[in-house]
Every structure is written in C-alpha cells, then in structure tokens.
Amino acid sequence: AQSVTQLGSHVSVSEGALVLLRCNYSSSVPPYLFWYVQYPNQGLQLLLKYTTGATLVKGINGFEAEFKKSETSFHLTKPSAHMSDAAEYFCAVKSRGYRDDKIIFGKGTRLHILP
Amino acid sequence: DTAVSQTPKYLVTQMGNDKSIKCEQNLGHDTMYWYKQDSKKFLKIMFSYNNKELIINETVPNRFSPKSPDKAHLNLHINSLELGDSAVYFCASSQRVLGNRKNTEAFFGQGTRLTVV
Fold first, then answer.
1. In this complex, do B105 and A34 lie within 8 Å of one another by their Cβ atoms?
2. Is residue A115 reached through a cis peptide bond, with omega within 30 degrees of 0 on the bond before it?
3. Which residues of A touch B44 (CB under 8 A)?
4. What are the residues whose beta carbons fall under 8 Å from the beta carbon of B35, sequence distance 6 or more?
5. Average pLDDT for residues B28-43, to the nearest whole number?
6. A44, A60, A89, A107: best mutation site toward chain B, by most B Cβ within 10 Å?
7. Successive 10-residue mean pLDDT values, chain A, 115 residues
8. Which residues on adjacent β-strands are paired with residue B97?
C-alpha cells in the first residue's frame, strides 16, 4: 500500500530565507508525486507534479521539488520565502496503475513566515 | 468560471438531520471524488466515481451515499448526521486518460464546511 510521510507538521522560516518542506513516500513502484497548497478557507491548488522525465520539477510561485528515487523523497523548496507563502502544504501520491485513481495525501505541513 | 464548484460552502445542522452537498465540474473530466478533511487538516478519500460508476469506497459508513447523475456531477447525501461528521468536505475531479497517457492531478473545489451541533 502506498503512503506519504511529511516531516514536521509546522515549519517556520524568516521572510527571504530558504523554504524546505520534506516528503517521503512508500510504494513498491515509484508513483506520481504532487505538492498541493491550501490557503485558509480555500480548496487545494496544485503547486507542481512529477510524472516522468526530469527529476527536478518547477512549479508555480517559485517552488520546485526534486524526485529522488533512491531516497523515496520529493522535497519541496523555494529559495526565498515570501509572506504570501504562509499556508498548509500537502505532499501526495497516485499510483501509475491505469484503474487506480486514488490520490493519497500526507498529513500536511503548516508553513509560517516570520517577518 | 469556476472549474469545480460545491454548494453550500457552509452547512450547520443538528444531529440526526439529513443533508446533501452538491458538486459540479465543468472541466469535462470523467472521474470525480469526495474527500474529508478533519480538524487536524488530514485529507482522506471517501469515494471515487469514473463515468458515473463507483470505483472507490473507502469504508465510509452507510449513512454517506454518493450519487452521480452524470459525469459532471457528484453529490453527497448524509443521513442521520453525527457530531463526528463535522469536517470540511472537498469535491475533486480528474481525467483518467489524456491522449494515450494516464492523466494525473485532481482539481479541487473550495470545500463545504459541515458543522453538526
């Protein structure tokens, strides 16, 4: 069975500092990988995804993530944090199986930006 | 133009009542989902439909009954509401196959905050 682990339910960084949110997955076959962001009282918005090809994936709002098969990781980074980045971030996986449409989410990491 | 829309956005009701949440997507997708987000922000899939056919039912109590009248709609009816049903419910949609490749991401609605008192 697939699972997703996000290290740290809360992460605080200063404005302008590097953002690093950690995600590890468990799956017998490398799955599709996603990062979603949720702003307060909003739905989930896709930040970026990894399906195939280049392992460094760039997303919206300056975020990027790198798929590392050997480490079963898909950590999210941003070089310089902005106050508007404060939100809940979810790492998620989806099986490559044709009929398996389930997206499994990690427990989320709340990102706090300190002025 | 909202891609995945849910109504209502907020729902406050008493224990024992029956309520419905509606979801519509205008993306032309063939797969729709219901997710439940609890007070700790944990997202858990409840149901998935593909072309109006139930694909996933994640051991959700029988009091929850999804209905998909067509590919663009997936409604959620809840009978005999309990305090523990209080949560935010998200509808989402995706397209299983795009061209000759399996499509991947899901698009989410804004959520329905259900409060049972």
1. yes
2. no
3. 105
4. B43, B44, B45, B46, B89, B90, B91, B92, B108
5. 93
6. A44
7. 91 97 90 94 93 92 95 97 97 81 92 96
8. B102
